[in-house]
Amino acid sequence: MSSATISARRLADLVGDFERSPAYLGLADAIRELVGDGRIAYGARLPSERDLTGALGVSRTTVTRAYASLRETAYAEARQGSGTYTRLPGGPVRAHDRALNPGVPRPGLLDLVCAAATAPPGVAAHYAAAVAELPAHLGGNGYYPAGLPDLQAAIADRYAARGLATRPEQIIVTPGALAATAVVSAALTGPGTRCSSTPPPTPMRRRRCAPAAPGSPCPRSNRPGGTWTPPPRC
User: Fold this and answer.
1) DSSP letter at 226?
2) Is 212 helix (H, G, I), strand (E, B) or coil?
């Protein structure tokens, strides 16, 4: 467990311009994300309520209630006479996916299997908002193969705002990049089709589209003379 102490000024810089309606929930959510993605170490000592109040320019009640929210959701614990320390629900060890990492995880091991970053700020709040809207979808069978209609419409509007006229029915929402690659591959390729791509960011994408032999003819060549040169292997 970390014995680090984070200063009030450093924490104020990290939380930045957090949501102020209400301020204590915005502060608590910001700290939860910082602990969850590792920018604040597990077991680190948080600044005192008085110091953080001064650094943030908020009321003491805001910080007190934010720390209480962190304790209630198991992201912090108070130690009598010592202060408030960060923690995580279920402990500091992340869930281990045996399909991607067959070996036993070791502390301090860097995961280079997936070219994927940690969750961006705001994800937890969006999940909470989605859960709040869940009852509206419980009356049906729950199956939306192309995505929730509201989400399709929102994505179509985003494309339209960028200059590409798009209708909601033209949008297919997938669980992730791997599923999207599978859908596109199934729609545009067939058995024996040669294709090329950049080094795959997902660990199983290359299984879907096997690389052709160097120098072989390709309808969409990337070299003069209609031959294909494979991208660097990752």
Assistant:
1) T
2) coil
Mean pLDDT over each residue of the chain, to the nearest integer = 80
CB 34 within 8 A of CB 75: no
Confidence of residue 227 (pLDDT cuts 50, 70, 90): very low
Q: In whole angstroms, give the CA distance from residue 104 to residue 84.
A: 32
Residue pair 168/149 in contact by the 8 Å Cβ criterion: yes
Q: What are phi and psi of 94, to 5 degrees?
A: -75, 155
What are residue 127's phi and psi, to 5 degrees?
Answer: -65, -40
Closest to 48 measured CA to CA, from 17, 24, 82, 76: 82
DSSP of 184-201: HHHHH--TT-----SSPS
Please report where in the chains the tokens 């399909």 appear, as a residue. Answer: 99
Query: Which long-range CB contacts under 8 A does 180-184 form with residues at least 24 apart?
Result: 181/205, 181/208, 181/209, 182/208
Average pLDDT value for residue range 38-46: 92
**Segment 98-110, tens digit of pLDDT:** 776 666 666 666 6
Residue scoring higher pLDDT (179 or 104) = 179
Residue 28: alpha-carbon gap to chain centroid: 19
pTM, rounded to two decimals:
0.55
Nearest to 45 by CA among 85, 2, 87: 85
Show the 3-state SS of 66-104: HHHHHHHCCCEEEECCCEEEECCCCCCCCCCCCCCCCCC
Within 8 A by CB and 6+ apart from 134, the residues are none
Task: Quote the CA–CA distance of 24 and 136 in Å, as a whole number.
Answer: 28
